[in-house]
Amino acid sequence: MSNVNSQRSFFGFLVAGAIALVIIAIGLFYWFFAKTPVNLVTSTSEPQSAIFVSKVAPVMVSLLNNPERLWERQGQLSQLKTSLLAKTDIDYKQDIKPWLGNEITLAVTTTDIDRDPENGQQPGYLMALATKKPETSREFLELLFSRRVLAGANLEVEKYAGVKLLSDSSSQVNALSAAVVDDFVLFANDAKVLRDAINNVQAPDLNLSSSSRYQKALQQLPKATLATAFLNLPAVAAWQGLELPAATFDSQLISLSLHPQGLLAESNFLTDSEIMPVSAPLSQNVGALAYIPDGVGLVISGTNLNNLPNSDLGQLWKQATTAVFASGTDAISSWGKPLENLGVKTEDIFSWVKGEYALAVLPHPGVGGVNWVFVVEKLEDVPGGIARLDTIASEQGLSVSSFNWNQKTVFAWAELTPTQTDTPEGLSFNIEAQVRGVHTNEGNYEIFASNLETLAPLITTKNAAMIGDRHFQDSIAGIPQPNQGYVYLDWTKSRTLLERQLPSLQLVEIVGKSFWQKLRSLTLSSYSQEKGLVKTGVLFRFLD
To answer: What is the pLDDT of residues 222-277, one digit of tens each?
Structure first.
């Protein structure tokens, strides 16, 4: 039972530390993009603390920068520092600042410390702080534990493999174990976690640094890396009590780095399974983007939708959404939600879109809904695909008709509703039409839209296309080429809609208020070309 109490009490300590790392990272980005001068110490090498973490550990997160500059310059972070240490009687400036180095790592080392399922799952937590002065760090630990003893803790001292371990076992205060090993100060929620960490150093083939998968992922680290996270995906799923029916990818390395166009978050997903790309990488922009209007909130562009469900991105999306939502059934099809009002399922489109495509969602002011545009390169399978959509519309009770507009033949899907009105002459009957979708041919593309008001500017005022927007151009310029297309989200235009559809997003915004207030857009793409590796990137751009 004492182990359970220790785990629970230390969990709060680790959660506070994790939140601190997140807020510190957000502070870094906020500071940088507010154009405040800062000399960041960045690294492209692996976190040195990886030698303490098992290669089968679920997750390890590392901040590769000393937070001191941020704490000194940012009021919110200074308050965070004060609140974290408020009940410890520890003075950061005097007790920690003199020795703290340029790396802070948090890791879940195991899903169950004693491997006994009968007493519940007891994860092991490890925190490693780089130290510039090991002796000063040891003095800090002596001070820390002496104060904990005064607060009612029972001190236990142990020598293990030549390392002095300090622990307390009182349930009245946060249980803690600590040691100084080489150039790191280690904290854990159980002495066994520290002993395992020391074993990992002395038996190199046990630690994460010796993992060939981890080393392969590290080769993808960009320059000026600020922070990294490595996830053992099956272990993370087990830790969360999830079963992944599609566990194609077994590990993931996330990195955060500064970029001339913004902040780049890259994820490298690794697998031994056979996977195929959605399409051949593109070395230039998708031509269908020329028919996407300026001012859209969301744009998805690429080629060859028919390969998507079984491709690397399709499998990745299914696994990721299964882990997050516990079901990946409709995860891939969610991109086509604007077409659901037509009764169209994404499989009705995937099969015949083998060329370029672009899907855009436009905010609809004052209505609460959205307008949409879908552009498809007109290859040989497209006419048959359109005929299939017409059939589906008819089966849904919609009228399928055509009319001439601006010397173009426009096809419309409309819901016809009869109405009657009493007049002095008797009953007057009318038919009202609610347009559910329109489409027409323009050059080498077929353009679908939610209504004629949305479609009209696309075939009359081409210079209004978002492809000429400076912010969009800067966003896609920050994504390496060749790539497999883009997902572009204009945060300033889509925020209200996203908050309405995803209420939990508001909680995320509260955690990093400054970050979200300054966010202009984010752009996601996939651009890996190596076997067994899917590399994705998200570029965040901020308001001036």
So the answer is: 877 888 889 888 888 777 776 665 667 788 888 888 778 888 888 888 887 776 66
DSSP assignment letter at 54: B
126 with 112: CB under 8 angstroms? no
d(CA 439, CA 408): 10
> CB within 8 A of 276, min separation 6: which ones?
307, 310, 311, 312
Quick one: how far is CA 185 from the chain centroid? Answer: 30
- Concatenated DSSP letters of 335-362: GGGGGGGGT--THHHHTT--SEEEEEEE
Residue with tokens 């996407």: 292
End-to-end Cα, the chain, rounded Å: 54
Residue 536 tokens read as 């994705």
Cβ pair 358, 375 in contact under 8 A = yes
Return all residues near 428 (Cβ < 8 A) that are at least 6 apart.
420, 421, 422
Taking only the tens place, the pLDDT of each residue in 300-310 is: 888 887 766 56
Is the separation of the CB atoms in 74 and 67 below 8 Å? no
| Look-up of token digits 């002993």 | 195
Distance CA 438, CA 402 (A): 9
Residue 334 CB contacts under 8 Å (≥ 6 apart), including other chains: none
Q: Residue 446's beta-bridge partner residues?
A: 376, 441
**178: exposed, middle or buried (Cβ count in 10 Å: 0-12, 13-18, 19+):** buried
Element (H, E) at 372: strand 370-377
Structure tokens at 498: 């996203």
Please state, in angstroms and rounded to a whole number, the distance separating the CA atoms of residues 515 and 207.
Answer: 35
Beta bridge partners of 42: none
CA distances 271 to 210, 276, 523, Å, are 17, 12, 24
3-state secondary structure (DSSP) of residue 401 = strand
Other C-beta atoms within 10 Å of 334: how many?
A: 11
Give the global pTM: 0.77
